[in-house]
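SAMPLE LOG
Freezer: B-3
Tube label: C17
Construct: single chain, 440 aa
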Amino acid sequence: MRIFLCFILIFLLPCNSFSQEGEQSPLDSLRETLLYGIESEILEAVKNIRENREERLNEDLETLLAETVSVAVRGAVLDYFTVTEYSGAEETALNLLEQTEVENAGLIIALIKYLSEIKSDKAGEYLAEAIDEQNSNISLAAIKALGKSESQGNGQLLLDRLQDEDYPDNLKPELILALGELAYKPALEELTKIAQNRDAERILRMYACDSLGKIGDNQSIQVFKDIFSEGDALLAIYAASALANYAMSEVEDLLIEGLKNSNVRVRIAAARGLANKEAKKAAKVLIYKARRDPEKKVRLQAIESLGQIGSNEAVDFLLELFSDKKQSPDVLETALCTLVDNHLNSSLKTIREVIDREWQEKDQKTIEFIGKKLSQTEHSGLKDIFTKILESANFIIRIYAIRGMEYNRTTGYKEIIKSISTEDQHPAVRKAALLLLEKS
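STRUCTURE (predicted):
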């Protein structure tokens, strides 16, 4: 309850943060701080802008990025632009990248991350040189950026460094991952050699498995089979995860065997790999795992995977599980979420029955997580459920009901919410209703 109230408070902050102060608008106040404030004030202003996604100040932030001498301020602005994927500062960032001294590695890395996030083609030449930089942190950032570039032309550059015996060993794991990100097929032979080499460092072999899976060539399946037979749990985890990239007809049996592995992380990876509508043969063993695996994380992943498989057998089991009052809250919530996300039409009757069963219970947690999930779901058949839970004595459930009605544009929801904004007995509900009215 305390966490939820904190969430409500945070939800209200954007309105309060930009409330009027005298005659000066909040926007002008922030702009003035960016222009004239000291470093601590500017950093607080950038934080405020980021929290409220105040995009109207992006051009002002671009100017600040170009003109300030504060590394901390530049880093904060770049972090905001990276998170929001704002591409307007590309030229400014490129200019700074050329001007910044290598000693200021933190700023260079922030610039590389930003340019990588917006997929700047113009940064390619700099990145190609930066992978040989003496500062390994800069080189690592450049390698990652090249891997995310989606340019196959960068693949050979990365492969050459991987095969270079004089290239720093501490950078080679990142080279392997970058080749996988690019799905660079010419690297298949080298990556296979690494994955099969039992004398190679384990991290290199694990990352080679990951990248082979992303490349997705069928000849790599035998590599994964061999790794499973080695008995190394960490390698098996990566092999199981890699198999999820292949046609299920080719790897289903191998992933089912992974479900029987004594290592919990291998079983989780195998169950996740079977989250595929083509993995119908795996339904029985996943049902067994959902019921009886000794590790909760495996049970929950098995439930999610059954929702993705979606066979009649899988859906019937999930409905039965969600209806079972004896199950723990996390099991019930996981079953509900996978049903709502994948099979809502088939689940509505059961959801209504569970709400009716729990309606008079003192502990309303089950209805709470039902309300929370449905409030984020768009479906024409939810009106009666929202109308029902709007009458709950639990104020949290009422908030979820009005959010769900707003999200689904339920007929008459504005009139209902307007009434709630003035008449509901709980202030948090009234505030939530007012917020929704302001948005609509």
